[in-house]
Amino acid sequence: MAGIRLARSVATLATTVVLVAGSAAGASAEQAPGTPDISGVRAALQRVVDSGAPGAFAVIRDHGNPELDRSLAVGKADLDGTPMNADWRFRVGSNTKMFTSVLVMRLVEQGRIDLDKPLRDYLPQGTLPESWQMTGRQVMEHRAGVYDYTNDLLEQSGEETTAAFEKRIRNNVYEPKDLVAMSVKHGLQYTPGAAYSYSNTDYVLMGLAAERLTGRPYADLLREQIFEPLKLRQTSFTVPEKGIAGQHVTGYLTNDDRSKPLLNSTEQTASWIWSAGGVVSSAHDLDHFLTALMAGSRGGLVSDESLRQMTSVLPTSTAKVGYGLGVREIALSCGKVLGHGGIVQGYQTQSFSSPDGKRTVIVFANASNNGSITQGLTNTLEPAFCGKTPASPAPRNSLTGNGSGGRWVPAVEDSRI
Q1: CB distance 323 to 142 below 8 Å
Q2: pLDDT band (50, 70, 90) for residue 31
Q3: DSSP string, 210-258
C-alpha cells in the first residue's frame, strides 16, 4: 500500500509473508521450473487452513508437460461444510490490475496514449490538478506519488477491518472520480518517479483514462477486449452488483475481535476498488489469461513490445520483488515468476506464471484480515514452481512460522488489495 507512513509499519509486520525458497543462494533467474513438490504445496495449504481460513487450493498448469498438472484443495468452500472446489469463482482483488494494464497497453499500440506524457492530458477534465504532471508510466509503476484512498476508506494501513467493511464497503457505491478526489485531497506524497509506493488510486486513474479515450465503460472494455476473445466464461466485472453469479466460493473476513466468528463478506458492491480490484474470475480463467499474456503477440492480448514494457520491472521496497506495468516479479529459487496477487475482503489469490508462460500457479484462500493466512498461501509458490529443495536455516528475524527452513522472500507490502 502507500507505505511511507509510520502508521503502516505495524500492519506490515503483521502481514509479512515469506516464500520458502529452498536451493542454494545464487540460483539463476533463467532456471526452468522444477517438478512441483505436491506434498510441499499441500502442506502449505494445510497451514493456511490451520491459520484460520475455511479452505484453500492450488492449481498448477504446466503447458510444456501436462502430466505435471495438479489441482489440490483442502478445507471448505463455506462454513456450511461444502468442500473447497478449485473450479469455482471468486473475487480476484488486485489481479484486476493486470487486466487494466492490458487495456492500457492496447491503447498504447493504437497510438491513443503516450505513457511518457502527463496522464492528466488523457483523463476527464479536472480529474487531477494542472500541476500534477506525472506520466502514465509512473502511475502504472506505482511511482507517481499519488495517495492511496483505500487508507481513508479502511481507516488504517494494512489489512481490512470488519468495522470499516460494514460501514463503508459492503453496501456503498462510489464513483471512480470520487475515489480519485479522496486521494487528491492529500496532495502529492513525493516527486513523481522518486520512489515506489503502491496505490490503488493509480489503477483507478488508468481505468478512467481507458474510458475517456475509448468512450466505452470499463466493464464493456474488459468484456469486448479480454473476456470474450479469450472465452473467459467464468470471468466478469459486475460492479456495483453485490452478488457473485454461478458456483462460487464464499469469502470470509476475519473479525477484528478474534473471539467473534468469521464474517461472510461475499456480497459487496466492490465499487470501492473498481478497476484496481473488482474482477471476479476462476483459477481456470486466470491460467488462460496469464498464458495468453505471456505469449505476447501470439496470445492475442498485447504485442511483444507491450509485454516487454509490462514485464520490465523496477525494484520495490521489498527484497526480491519488482514491479512493472501492472505486473509483479518475484524471485524464487528456480528463477523469476510474473503475475500479481490480490486480497479483497474474504478472498486471497496469488496468480503467477513462468516468464515463458509454460507453467502457471494459482493459489487461493477464502479468508482475509489474517497475516498468517497470507503467509501460508504465498508459501505455496516455491514448491509449486521449484519443487523440492534442500532446507537451509531461515534468517532469525524472518517470520516464517512454518516449521521449514529455506531461503526466504518477504511479501509485498500491498497485501491488503
Answers
A1: yes
A2: low
A3: HHHHHSS-HHHHHIIIIITTTT-TT-B--TT--S--SSBPPPEEPPSST
| Whole-number pLDDT of residue 160 | 61
Q: Is 312 a catalytic residue?
A: no
The answer to whether residue 195 scores a pLDDT higher than 80 is yes
| Separation of alpha carbons 409 and 378, rounded Å | 10
pTM value surpassing 0.85: yes
- 1 domain-assigned: no
Domain count of the chain? 1
User: 331 - beta bridge partners?
Assistant: 336
Which grid cell is 191? 516527486
Nearest to 254 by CA among 160, 170, 164: 160
Cell of 412: 509485498
Q: Cα dist. 396→26, 235, 281, 406 in Å?
A: 20, 42, 38, 12
* Burial class of residue 124, CB neighbours in 10 A (0-12, 13-18, 19+): middle
Largest CA distance in the chain: 57
Of 43 and 417, the one with more pLDDT: 43
Residue 272, SS3 per DSSP? coil
* Residue 252 and residue 348 in contact, taking contact as beta carbons nearer than 8 Å: no
CA atoms within 13 A on the CB side of 295: 16
The more confidently predicted of residues 33 and 395 is 33
Q: Which three cell numbers stand for residue 340?
A: 500479481
Q: Which of 87, 104, 63 is nearest to 359 (CA)?
A: 63
Which residue segment(s) compose the domain that 182 sits in? 6-410
Which residues have a Cβ under 8 Å from the Cβ of 72 and sit 6 or more positions away? 38, 41, 42, 45, 57, 58, 59, 86
Q: Which grid coordinates are listed for 314?
A: 523496477
Q: Residue 99 has which C-alpha cell?
A: 487486466
pLDDT of residue 154: 87
Q: Does the residue 163 lie in any domain?
A: yes
Comparing CA positions, the residue from 189, 256, 347 lying closest to residue 14 is 256
Please pick, among 9, 23, 39, 94, the residue that the annotation labels catalytic: 94
pLDDT band of residue 197 (cuts 50, 70, 90) is very high
- Which CATH number do you get for residue 190? 3.40.710.10
**Predicted confidence band at 315 (pLDDT cuts at 50, 70, 90)?**
very high
Question: Is residue 306, in this structure, part of any structural domain at all?
Answer: yes
Lay out the sheet containing 367-368: strands in order across.
263-264, 252-253, 367-368
